[in-house]
Amino acid sequence: MTDLVPVRRALLSVSDKSGLVELAQALAARGVELLSTGGTARAMREAGLTVRDVSDVTGFPEMMDGRVKTLHPGVHGGLLALRDDEDHVAAMEAHGIGAIDLLVVNLYPFEAAVAGGADYDTAIENIDIGGPAMIRAAAKNHRFVNVVTDVEDYAALLDELKARDGQTSYAFRQRLALTAYARTGAYDAAVSGWMADALGETAPRRRVVAGRLKQTLRYGENPHQSAAFYVDGAARPGIATAEQLQGKELSYNNINDTDAAFELVSELAGEAPACAIIKHANPCGVAVGATLADAYSRAFDCDRTSAFGGIVALNRPLDRATAAAITEIFTEVVIAPGADEDARAVFAGKKNLRLLLTDGLADPAAAGLALRQVSGGLLVQDRDTGAVGEADLRVVTKRQPSEAEMRDLRLAWTVAKHVKSNAIVYVKDGATVGVGAGQMSRVDSTRIAARKAQDMAEALDLGAIPTQGAAVASDAFFPFPDGVLTAAEAGASALIQPGGAMRDEEVIAAADEAGLAMVFTGMRHFRH
Ligand SMILES: NC(=O)c1ncn([C@@H]2O[C@H](COP(=O)(O)O)[C@@H](O)[C@H]2O)c1NC=O
């Protein structure tokens, strides 16, 4: 097995020119001959380096707006030839092909062009052809050839060359090849995903998804599972793009729960200051308030027991009063679109508390895909961007909800969208007072939510029953009147649900009988 291989000749062809000159200078200092394409060669020459043009090697000028530059046996032969195969060596000699030991390529910025709203033709011109062809050739021949596709690997390459006196090890080249194939794979995933969107194809024959490693994780959902976090490069504010200001490294469960918390609070962008507290991906308290601290305190009062060790998401920058209130109990993560100096100072005393800052809130209406793995497959659907407007709401009972009830119904509905099914949410005066999540029966969720509200009222010595006069949301229709009756027994005065059950008439009659106001949304929000 060929292990150490000297690097004598390199081909550099990069769109992202950061770090290029420093790399090329270091290679030149080692006596490596530099070959390059148009703009890359220009940048190196401007820095005083001696560079040979690829067109000199191919005998053809770069042509067709750069569509054809390196697609030539003079280049691909130099990348693909097996140096220990007599026939390959003879072919190189016969055709005057020089071996290329190092390929440094990064691709036309297709992903960035598309993210920036490029039109169809511009996107097409941003599809790199020669770059991926060379990357795949060099990666295939990693027994002899080094292929660098990320600027962040330049330093490791130079370290390797330094440590091995101008040579690289087989293991090193293997790792580079792995990265290279993942890069071309991700690139084509971006291109095919874009084409599927452009053609309105929701179910293309093959669906490719790609991600870039953001961090390795200590473990997965449980300590015996290994795990890592990959991001798709989208600019959406949230867990993938947030800046962690302080605190311990995020865990797998932190990432999952923080995502749920931030996506929920982002739905309350247009509201007063709002807070969502999440445990195990379900909200255990959501509230709006006069101030952020008020919102936090009212969310906390929904279920103080579950909020311990929870994730807190805010729809406004964290301020001192809210920071002080949060630090009174153990909290895993706080995520917010900013934090003022006073708040940062309060958190500085809690070294382990993770503080994540985002660039604004996420747009709940932004289209995208939601993926879920099942055994042997991938379920793909649109993100749940569904939202109901005034015109969609239909009061089906004799009694109309009051304005205050309608406000609470809308908040309860929004929260229910983010609760695992079967979801039942009681809201009173802009704060959840009971959440029933993840039950197999809807009536159980209704009972559990009311029971939890009752328990909290007793623990806090509130006197009044918090579900009295509450608005209740159900993520899907009540199939029977029992859920409605349970909510009515708990004192609820208004209900919101999709409607559409076979027994809607019975359910509406039960609501009328109990004097409830009930609104149908015509939209369901299952979440599993
Ligand atoms: N067509 C080709 O033969 C070709 N060969 C290399 N490229 C790309 O051209 C870019 C570098 O171009 P320049 O050196 O002119 O800035 C790199 O992103 C590289 O991947 C090509 N461009 C597109 O396919």
From TrEMBL:
Gene3D superfamilies: 3.40.140.20, Methylglyoxal synthase-like domain. GO terms for cellular component: cytosol. Keywords: Hydrolase, Multifunctional enzyme, Purine biosynthesis, Transferase. The IMP cyclohydrolase activity resides in the N-terminal region. Residues 2-149 form the MGS-like domain. PROSITE patterns: MGS. The gene is purH. The keyword Endoplasmic reticulum does not apply. It catalyses: IMP + H2O = 5-formamido-1-(5-phospho-D-ribosyl)imidazole-4-carboxamide; (6R)-10-formyltetrahydrofolate + 5-amino-1-(5-phospho-beta-D-ribosyl)imidazole-4-carboxamide = 5-formamido-1-(5-phospho-D-ribosyl)imidazole-4-carboxamide + (6S)-5,6,7,8-tetrahydrofolate. Pfam families: AICARFT_IMPCHas, MGS. InterPro entries: AICAR_Tfase_dup_dom_sf, Cytidine_deaminase-like, MGS-like_dom, MGS-like_dom_sf, PurH-like. Its EC number is 2.1.2.3, 3.5.4.10. This is Bifunctional purine biosynthesis protein PurH. It comes from the Bacteria. One of its GO terms (molecular function) is IMP cyclohydrolase activity. It comes from Roseivivax sediminis. Pathway: Purine metabolism; IMP biosynthesis via de novo pathway; 5-formamido-1-(5-phospho-D-ribosyl)imidazole-4-carboxamide from 5-amino-1-(5-phospho-D-ribosyl)imidazole-4-carboxamide (10-formyl THF route): step 1/1; Purine metabolism; IMP biosynthesis via de novo pathway; IMP from 5-formamido-1-(5-phospho-D-ribosyl)imidazole-4-carboxamide: step 1/1. Belongs to the PurH family. One of its GO terms (biological process) is 'de novo' IMP biosynthetic process.
